[in-house]
Amino acid sequence: MRETSTPRGVIVASDYGAAELGKLFTERHAEAVKDLGRFNLAVFGKTGAGKSTLINAIFGSDVAATGTGPPVTTDVTYYEHPDGILGLYDSQGFETGHGGDAVLAGLERIVSDSRTQPVERHIHAAWYVVRWSDRRFEQAQAAFVRKLSTLVPVIFVLSQVPKAPDGRVHHDALAFATYIESLALPTSPDGSVVLTNALYDDFHGNVVFGLDRLLDATFATAPEASRRALTAAQLIDKERKRQASNQIVKAASASALTTGVTPIPFSDAAILDPIQIAMIARITAAYGLSVPSSKLAALVGSLMLTSGATTAGRWLVGSLLRFAPGGQIPAAVISGTVAASLTTAVGRAWIEVCERMLERDVNGSPIDIDLMQELFRQEFKQRFRMKPTTSA
């Protein structure tokens, strides 16, 4: 790797290899994930209420499967997302009464202890899940919800609700939800009940619904400081991930524009690589992908060599040489505008790659690295029309 001094006297890398780019990505990605913080969710409900199904539908099945954490009580286990961006307090099918009292006592200790801790140690929201077909909501359950709501914001979820393909929701489920809302429990948002079904039932024709509303209610309840982690951890709202990533691209492009205020020689175009690598790392973190880091590092290193700033600079020089008389060109540079445009193209192309990888990740399909490379190149070419900029 060659180093060069910029006009501002800062030493930067100007000729990375694929392995070095991959290593830089790994370092920046770890930093980006840490910067997201953590969203902590507590989930309660009787055995068979469908808590795990809801968790898997919104956050994926790897949280409880691979996460670890300390027990709160004998009835509650704490799981942590492999990347640390989601913490989950999961009740093991407790019943109300003595078991509920033990759970509340444990949570009260957690909440009390966390008040002097950073926000990522707090419990940010709770789901209280009731299966619609129980058609009963006892006074002991209502008392539990009221007490729980003094510790953490509570979202009341009615699960496994039948909904036909034509949009009709089972009338008994609607009546049950209306009854619960009439109790004026202190739940969020506005004492309402969120009706959900997380599994498609081909035999009865029941469709999946309500997950987006449950996620919206969770975002509305969560403190601002935890929402970036929640955005990354959840799997069903791509638009939130895309919006967060677009902001990352704008910030990186602004940095590239500033870097190019003093025009960058084509030969030193890789001065932009650290900016673009950090941008790609932050976008990847925002999408919460579970692709092995070694594969991602190899993919990023390869892409930056074939489509990044260094390659763009070489392409521009080559284009000028083909058309300049005698193969002589004036001092060729990348302006701030071109640097920003190039960085934006890299970022937008990487967002498309993350969208595709997330889709395959959720479906359990293996990530085809060659396919992702080709997708990036196509998206990059569409977004960046390379035009030489020269100065005498």
Helix-residue proportion: 40-55%
**Strand coverage percent:** 5-15%
Whole-Å distance between the termini?
29 Å
What is the spatial order of strands in the main beta sheet? 4-5-6-3-7-8-9
Sheet of most strands: 7 strands, mixed
Principal-axis shape: elongated
Radius of gyration: 26 Å
Counting DSSP E segments of at least 2 residues, the number of strands comes to 11
Q: What is the succession of H and E elements?
A: EEHEHHEEEHEHEHEHHHEHHHEHH
The low-pLDDT segments are 1-14, 316-330, 388-392
Number of helices: 14
Average of per-residue pLDDT values? 81
Q: What is the structural class?
A: alpha/beta
Tell me what you see in this structure:
The protein has 392 residues and is an alpha/beta fold. It has helices at residues 18-36, 51-59, 62-66, 98-114, 139-149, 171-182, 211-221, 227-233, 238-259, 273-287, 293-307, 309-323, 336-363, 369-383; strands at 3-5, 11-13, 39-44, 71-73, 76-80, 86-91, 125-131, 154-159, 193-195, 264-265, 333-334. It has a 7-stranded mixed β-sheet, with helices on both faces. Strand 4 and strand 5 form a beta hairpin. The longest helix is centred in the last third of the chain and has 28 residues, at 336-363. The two termini are 29 Å apart.
List the helices and strands and how they pair.
Layout lengths: L2 E3 L5 E3 L4 H19 L2 E6 L6 H9 L2 H5 L4 E3 L2 E5 L5 E6 L6 H17 L10 E7 L7 H11 L4 E6 L11 H12 L10 E3 L15 H11 L5 H7 L4 H22 L4 E2 L7 H15 L5 H15 L1 H15 L9 E2 L1 H28 L5 H15 L9
Parallel strand pairs: 3-6, 3-7, 7-8, 8-9
Antiparallel strand pairs: 1-2, 4-5, 5-6, 10-11
